[in-house]
């Protein structure tokens, strides 16, 4: 899947048109269609990833995890050096399970 295809897919999931994305990010009209065959600049990738709430690595096809830190907003520090995308996904699911368990405990103690 090309960078453009990934962006298009995410836009569809979020109900955003490519032209709206280009406009909101101050990119030239139809400029993103060049991403079908060319790698965009780092700055454009960063802006697009931030706008769509995904990682640059996801846009480039280096991982299938859209946002490896999604759901970890409360974490103060997470060293993911050396972890594979699968490992990161496991850590995320463990953290989510812990948060859910804490919510149940909190609810029980009320």
From TrEMBL:
One GO molecular-function annotation for this sequence?
Answer: DNA binding
Q: Where is the HTH cro/C1-type domain?
A: 7-59
Concerning PROSITE patterns, the annotation shows: HTH_CROC1 (PS50943)
- Gene3D superfamilies found in the cross-reference section: lambda repressor-like DNA-binding domains
Q: What SMART domains would the database entry show?
A: HTH_XRE (SM00530)
Matching entries from InterPro entries are given as: Cro/C1-type_HTH (IPR001387), Lambda_DNA-bd_dom_sf (IPR010982)
Q: Which domain of life is it from?
A: Bacteria
One Pfam family assigned to this protein is: HTH_26
Signal peptide feature range: none
- What name does this protein carry? XRE family transcriptional regulator
Task: Give the taxonomic lineage as stored in the record.
Answer: Bacteria, Bacillati, Bacillota, Bacilli, Bacillales
């Amino acid at each position: 899947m090309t960078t453009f295809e990934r962006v298009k897919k995410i836009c569809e999931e979020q109900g955003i048109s490519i032209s709206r994305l280009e406009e909101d990010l101050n990119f030239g009209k139809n400029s993103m269609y060049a991403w079908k065959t060319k790698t965009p600049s780092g700055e454009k990738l960063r802006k697009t990833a931030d706008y769509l709430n995904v990682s640059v690595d996801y846009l480039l096809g280096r991982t299938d995890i859209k946002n490896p830190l999604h759901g970890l907003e409360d974490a103060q520090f997470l060293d993911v050096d050396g972890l594979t995308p699968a490992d990161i996904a496991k850590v995320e699911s463990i953290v989510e399970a812990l948060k859910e368990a804490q919510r149940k405990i909190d609810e029980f103690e009320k």
